[in-house]
Amino acid sequence: MSVSLSPCSVPGLKPSFTLREDEMELGLGIHGEAGAERTKLQEANEVVKLMFKQMTRSDLGYQYFETIPGMEVALAVNNLGGTSNLELLIMTNAAIRYLVDELKVAVVRVISGSLITSLEMAGVSLTLLRLTPELLAYLDAETLAPGWPRATVGRGGSRTRLDSDPVACHSDSSPTAHDTRDKEPSTTIGRMMRSCVAEVCEVLIRNEERLNDLDRGSGDGDCGSTMTAGSTAIKERLSVMDWDNPRQVLLSLVGLVESNMGGTSGAVSLYSLFLTAGATADVSWSDSVSWATAMHAGLQAITRLMHWDQQWMSSDEACLLPPTHRRPWRCYTQQ
Prior knowledge:
single chain, alpha+beta, Hypothetical Protein Tm841, Chain: A,domain 3, Serine Threonine Protein Phosphatase 5, Tetratricopeptide repeat, 6-stranded mixed beta sheet
């Protein structure tokens, strides 16, 4: 079953059909054959739901795919030709989630890539194969086909890890993703730090467009949006963090930053790396020396990364230089 957002293109010819910008077609053929229906654009999870419902429904009188809880299947997610890798992987993840969580089947193998394509056709197709030991052996067989994307998943199913709440991932005592109980800090300084972080988040959110505008001069113009995404996520979890435990707060912030901020600032390295390294120090809210040590550890971690990647070093080095190059950062942070 396929879903397409645009027609295929034959060089020198006009498209054989058109789709509006807010429209998608379910079941469209690889050569532009008419599909089952046209609907409004929807997010990936809803699109996958529509596709699998069409594949598994039995009320139309034609052959359908019957799923049995616990059965083992292989999933192929094909790029129709004009879909980015990012979009393809989003659809792959959504398809796996629906199969495992809703249809209760074990996705033993996943094949995702450009298998059969049409020029400039934006969309994906999903293929399910009911597995037998013989078919599984064929899928895993060696091949010289250069375009065959081999991706193997454990026999226990496609979900090799469980998604957990960022605040909970570093401590057994932290709240789970479903735990919304507030944790009121027992110390005055813990409450002060929570207020400070909340105010920083508010300031960053209010200045989203200003930061984006500044970033357009030397980047892709998303600095403010990235900061807002991270700040919003942190604000939502402020009340359940353990503000009496500085190290746990830093690790909680790492998880939130990695999960909600993109680019080099968040998911790739900088803030998460800085906070993780800082959390290795024995931090106390009221001990300025311990904070200096933590900050120094964070800066050292980023500096090591920048020396490893010269491309980042040229653009980000100014952020890490002390006010006077003759004095190390430790002097300033201790002050």
